[in-house]
Amino acid sequence: MVDSVPAASLPAGLPLDCLVQVVHLPLGDQGEDSFAYNFSLPALHTQAVFDGCGGSGAWQYSEYRGATGAFVSSHIVARVYLDWFNALDPSALPGADHLALSFHDAAEAALKKAEQSCAPMRVSGSLVKSFPTTASVALVRRADASSLSLTALNAGDSRVYFLTPASGLVQLTDDDSRGNPDPLESLRAGAPMSNLISASSPFEIRAREVRVPLPCAVICASDGVFGFLRSPMDFEYVLLDSLRRASSFSVFEEALKQAVVRVTGDDSTCLVSFYGFDSLARAQQLLRPRYLHVASLIRMLDNAGSEAEISEVMAKIWPEYKAATVFSCMRKQE
């Protein structure tokens, strides 16, 4: 569903063009992804994605009509998040670390209450969790006339990105994966998560706040959206190519969904909000140079024949791409 609001009715302060929403749940109503958003406030917007962890949260609860802990947790935390967000005072918003701690406490209290209302699980093991879910949350404010302030809160391996004509697709959050693999290694290794929201284990909500120049897009995505692609470059290419081909934001949304469905093997949720482009045509125009650059990288990979040749090409292009688009790596270069 595309939520596009007429320009005359948009809240003053935040130049929202459109929200694009891609949701693919192979199991239908039993899908373990959930999401939340609120763009109604004049000075503060939010969007968030939650991915219930089906492996560690597979226990089915009779108290929730047989739903898994993964399903219950992502939906509970989505509701809690929206209630928590709606209680914030945009005129006196605390810092990112305080926001992370406050949201942590709200999510923990809600999941512990759910756990206490249920009979104990009859399974055990180091990977088993009570009501486990990831979270990738974006809060957006106006920083000044030419930029936005973007605060990302996250736990697990769902991600927050931003997209600009100059920088391309920047991964703002770091995955909470054992061994701290980089985004390319994560696609290959599939390391278990080292931190996620749950009722049974301590967890941390990580926070990062940045200033993003306008125009831009803000993206929250569960790992089903990007985790089955060949490389992080491919995700940026899918976004930009789908946008390039579109005749409307609705067409872009459908193209992006079909691109995800073709490769994913999991629930997949992606929220993309566009700010300051004013129109699809201008977004396409401003992002075209970035598209051409990323497309050249993809052609290099596509033209490589054997797996050995693909690995050789990847070894050449990934370090530079990573240094320019993975925020934690960008910070190390400063």
Please describe what this structure looks like.
With 334 residues, the chain is an alpha+beta fold. It has a single domain (2-333), classed as Phosphatase 2c, domain 1 (4-Layer Sandwich), CATH 3.60.40.10. Helices cover 39% and strands 24% of the residues. The protein contains nine helices and 13 strands. The chain has a six-stranded antiparallel beta sheet. It has a five-stranded antiparallel beta sheet with strand order 3-4-7-8-11, with helices on one face. Strands 5-6 form a two-stranded antiparallel sheet. The model is unreliable at 1-11 (pLDDT under 50).
Record keyword descriptors for this entry:
Phosphatase 2c, domain 1; globular; disordered N terminus
Distance between the termini: 40 Å
Secondary-structure element order, N to C: EEEEEEHHEEEEHEEHHHEHHH
Task: Tell me the CATH superfamily.
Answer: PPM-type phosphatase domain
The helicity comes to 25-40%
